[in-house]
Amino acid sequence: MTASFDEGALVLFSGGQDSTTCLAWALARFGAVETIGFDYRQRHRVELDCRARIAERLRREFPHWAARLGEDHVVDLSVLGTISETALTRDSAIAFSASGLPTTFVPGRNLLFFVFAAATGYRRGLRHLVGGMCETDYSGYPDCRDDTLKSLQATLSLGMDHRFVIHTPLMWRDKKATWELARDLGGDALVELIRAESHSCYLGERGQLHDWGYGCGACPACELRRKGWEAFASA
Ligand code: ZN
User: Fold this and answer.
1) How confident is the model at residue 86, as a pLDDT?
2) CA of 218 to the centre of ligand 1 (A)
3) Which residue ranges in the chain fall short of pLDDT 70?
4) What is the CA(199)–ligand 1 centre distance, in A?
5) Quick one: pLDDT at residue 88?
6) Quick one: angle between helices 109-124 and 146-159, nearest 10?
7) Which residues of 3-42 are buried (b: 16+ CB within 10 A; e: fewer)?
8) How many whole angstroms separate alpha carbon 24 and alpha carbon 33?
9) How far is the CA of 31 from the centre of ligand 1 (A)?
């Protein structure tokens, strides 16, 4: 597939399954792609460590994408860890709070991510912002909702007087469909790269490579990933 735009895109790239698939999606569409990641003192830094390895393998194994994959930006958002009391930033249990949201919810996280992505995109001349948010089999995070991101697109465009477009290619796909998208974009090689190199586990576990990838196998992120993989592999 050739790039359909002459323009460039900035991908919110965490090193997880979803954002890695989004990175491939952007590489298949845009002439130039840059990535941005956020260090917010996550309880584990495995995802951030996976990012460099994923980018390196994408460049090596997908030469037609290598020329399009440009600069990576890592933004220090440690302030988020100091104001959030959540299971992703503190050593507390993953559970559901009284509000019905899991304790892995970091209030305002995706909103902040997009503000910093837009500011970076503004400076780099990249108005297309790509994120792996999904409303289909998410954990109820309000900042993953399509309406939230459409409203944010309007706010960012108005607030910076610059037309931004937020792309969320996974918004209406479940995890099975996300694997299918990866296969459509880059065949079995991309599926294998994402399976082995991307990271989803909330606990940062990377001891054993399961069929569906690395992880503890028990946390909500692993459970979602495993179920999606099983549905994909058995189809
Ligand atoms: Zn896990």
Assistant:
1) 57
2) 5
3) 1-4, 42-44, 84-105, 137-139
4) 9
5) 54
6) 40
7) beeeebbbbbbbbbbbbbbbbbbbbbbbebbbbbbbebbb
8) 10
9) 35
Query: 222 CA to middle of ligand 1, Å?
Result: 4
Total residues belonging to the chain: 235
- pLDDT of 1 reads 43
Q: What is the pLDDT of residue 225?
A: 94
Centre of ligand 1 to C-alpha 225, Å, is: 9
- Domains of the chain in sequence order: 5-234 (3.40.50.620)
CA of 207 to the centre of ligand 1 (A): 11
Contact assessment for residue 8 and residue 126, using Cβ atoms and an 8 Å cutoff: yes
d(CA 166, CA 154): 9
The whole-number pLDDT of residue 10 equals 98
Cα of 61 from ligand 1 centre, angstroms: 28
Between the CA of 53 and the centroid of ligand 1 the distance, in Å, is: 20
Which pTM value belongs to this model?
0.90
